[in-house]
Amino acid sequence: MKLWKTAWRFLPFSLLLLFLTGCLGEENLTTLDPKGPQSAWLLDNMLLSLYVMALVSIVVFAIFFIILAKYRRKPGDDEIPKQVHGSTVLEITWTVIPIILLAILAVPTITGQFMLADKEPDPEVGEDTVYIKVTGHQFWWQFDYENEGFTAGQEVYIPVGEKVIFELHAQDVLHSFWVPALGGKVDTVPGITNHLWLEADEPGTYKGKCAELCGASHALMDFKLIALERPEYDAWVASMQEEVEAPTDPVLAQGYQVFEENGCIGCHAVGGTGSAAGPVFTNFGDRSVIAGYLENDAEHIEAWIRNPQELKQGNKMPAFPQISEEDMDALIAYLQSLKVRE
Ligand code: HEC
Ligand SMILES: [Cu+2]
């Protein structure tokens, strides 16, 4: 009876867990539907251990219940049954079986570790292998394409079907770079360079998350990984490399002026290289979300600029409540005009 009482107490938690599993399906944020060789390997390896564990449990519990039923003490049983303590056959059997099971788990796990940690260029792509320097900031992501000479923010683009190598850094505190549909998570650590490679089997937008508690807005430190076919990817790179000219349209020109006069440009570079204190805006208009999670529309951009702390506690952007309505509209139009894709 006591056991049932305890079990009841856990019911709300179990239901809560069941409810939370709903979050896993959101926007590719699941490890159970792999979209690349890394994540496919991780899932296979996880299932292998699950099967081995299930097999062990089934066999052990079956023997347990059989023995419980068959050798139960019955009325009239006065003698102690035959004792098997010290049986060589049994001892050898239950030592050898686990060794075999562990070997079944160890061989693929160890070879897999080398495969996952490999940071050699893609053998088929060779010199064209894409290297991306990732920097985690409280609470946004910077992506430097150093060989190509430009920087992107919040959204990282890669070519499909190629091993892409990420060099991981952190600007301030520990973060963790994680694109569940494509691979495992690797921490970004201040002062230490970590590596990770990912490959996407099909074009698409994959959601990424910071997976290391890094401050008040850790939960909102999301990003997107966008995988494009090689020609499209090359076109994207070429547009990111282009010089960005000051706009000539009067409204956009006004917006650009507001952008300069308020010092936005000091933290948000447009075109060119070099890291800035905030996300680069060269392709701001292409982003599906801003600040990691807000829809990229006029309403949210304005709310963000006027009071970023309310939307993302503890982030490093100051508030600009003083910008006039007219200037704000021009500023937003200017930001939305910054596009490199159709
Ligand atoms: C002191 C540096 C700084 C200044 C000045 C600054 N920002 Fe920011 N801004 C940031 C940082 C840091 C973030 C990233 C916040 C986060 O997501 O944690 C950001 C994020 C943003 C975003 C969301 C970007 C995205 O790609 O997700 C917008 C839009 C933005 N800023 C607009 C502006 C505008 C417009 C101005 C000028 C009126 C401005 N910022 C001035 C630092 C700054
Ligand atoms: Cu983080």
In DSSP terms (H or I, runs of 4 or more residues), the helix count works out at 9
Q: Could you give a short account of the major beta sheet?
A: 5 strands, mixed
Q: Which percent bin holds the helix content?
A: 40-55%
Distance between the terminal alpha carbons, to the nearest Å?
A: 66 Å
CATH topology of the largest domain: Immunoglobulin-like
Ligands, ions, cofactors: heme C, copper (II) ion
Spatial strand sequence of the major β-sheet: 3-2-1-5-8
Query: Nearest-angstrom radius of gyration?
Result: 28 Å
Shape: elongated
Mind telling me which CATH architecture of the largest domain this is? Sandwich
Arithmetic mean of pLDDT: 92
* SSE class: alpha+beta
CATH class of the largest domain: Mainly Beta
Beta-strand portion reads 15-25%
- Give the number of domains: 2
